[in-house]
Amino acid sequence: HDIIYEFPDTGTYKVDFHIYDKQLDTIMIPMSKEWPIKLKEQAVIICPDTILAGNPVEFDGTQTYLPDFDDNAYLWDFGDGSFGQGQQVIHTYLYPGRFRVTLGVQERKKSRKDVPEMRSNFKDVIVVQSRQ
Q1: Cβ count near 34 (within 10 Å)
Q2: Which residue(s) pair with 42 in the sheet?
Q3: Distance, CA of 23 to CA of 39 (rounded, Å)
Q4: DSSP assignment string, the chain
Q5: What are the pLDDT digits (tens) for 14-33?
Q6: Can you list the domains of the chain with their CATH numbers?
Q7: Of 18, 74, 117, 124, which is the most buried if we count CB atoms within 10 A?
């Protein structure tokens, strides 16, 4: 069986494991381990899952966690042919549908010849017709 547990915060936790053998009806291997819980390194998109067409919506990338990445630009693709730039942007979808929002975080160039690295993530949103 899969056991799912959500830790309350990042940090190092002492985890006790007890492996149980059903046939022998006994605990086979008790063990303890220090387990570091870290945030996943990724571009993070904060926005509603469902959006009303015609209403402006904020898209927020400020919770992006890329600790060894010297971020320079936050580039947004809203999936409807529109684009934006910045950690927080406002966008209005004009018509209903399902759209994939992509946030790309571009690294600062280290030199003129350097090709900056890009990290990205996406989130699917549903735009519904407003009842006006």
Answers
A1: 8
A2: 65
A3: 38
A4: -------SSSEEEEEEEEEEETTTTEEEEEEEEEEEE----B---B--SEEETTSEEEEE-TT-B-TT--EEEEEEE-SSS-EEESSEEEEE--S-EEEEEEEEEEEPPSSTT----EEEEEEEEEEE----
A5: 988 777 778 888 777 778 88
A6: 50-128 (2.60.40.10)
A7: 74
Total residue count of the chain as it appears in this document: 132
Reference 38, options 9, 68, 15, 76; nearest CA is 9
Other residues' Cβ atoms within 10 Å of the Cβ of residue 68: 6
Judge whether residue 1 has pLDDT over 60.
Answer: no
